[in-house]
Design a protein that fits this description.
With about 220 residues, the protein is mostly helical. About 80% of the residues lie in helices and about 0% in strands.
Length: about 220
């Protein structure tokens, strides 16, 4: 993996460099026009956020019930990336909404539940940082709860009447839009995998360093 990592980084950079050319050449959406092209950035970021939340919650559950330190390191790394990609979603969404709906924010089911899920993972990180002894287990439970919110957030647009488009948008994309979208989605997933690997490795080094300090104190 260490030998492959630099090559994957170069590939990821190349994909993000090429993505704007695909997006520019993609056709305009009939009702929203140019502003719809933020879709190729906003939706892949949202799906990456969902993926990261699942990874964090599964790893947290493994740590909670199996007491495996490696799972805890993956959980905290994935939780940070959930917050990161969630921030991208919460910034690009209102930018798109301002042009499409005429307002920056609507308190509808999808937007509100996304914000709540993002705040849950923020709570996880704050609890890990300032919760004191035993906070790793308590925060793991918070991460599991955050992951359980993902299906609710995803299906909320189908369950309630909302201004946000339903989940049928991506499957029904025009063929000329489908290629650029899936290319951008793959670029985001690759970026996420690289960031998760790097952050987990950093967390492992931090744990070893902390163990060395504790050994010196003894």
């Amino acid at each position: 993996m260490k030998r492959l990592f630099p090559l994957l980084v170069v590939l990821c950079i190349a994909m993000f460099a090429y993505a704007p050319f695909l997006i520019v050449n993609a056709p305009y959406e009939s009702t929203m026009g140019l502003v719809q092209k933020i879709f190729y950035f906003h939706v892949p970021a949202a799906l990456t956020m969902f993926l990261s939340a699942f990874v964090a919650s599964i790893a947290a559950a493994v740590f909670l019930f199996g007491r495996k330190p490696g799972a805890d390191r993956i959980a905290v790394s994935a939780a940070e990336l959930t917050v990161l990609f969630g921030l991208v979603v919460l910034i690009t969404g209102p930018l798109w909404a301002r042009k499409a709906w005429g307002v920056w924010w609507q308190w509808d089911a999808r937007l509100t539940s996304t914000l709540v899920m993002w705040l849950v993972f923020q709570s996880y990180l704050l609890l890990r940082r300032y919760g004191g002894p035993g906070s790793d287990k308590l925060s793991a439970a918070v991460a599991v709860f955050g992951g359980a919110l993902v299906p609710f957030v995803y299906w909320s647009v189908n369950m309630w009447r909302t201004v946000h488009p339903t989940t049928s948008v991506v499957p029904t994309l025009d063929a000329s839009m489908r290629g650029p979208f899936y290319f951008c989605l793959l670029a985001f997933f690759l970026l996420y995998a690289l960031l998760l690997a790097a952050r987990t490795m950093l967390e492992a080094h931090r744990a070893r360093l902390e163990a060395l300090y504790l050994g010196l104190e003894d």
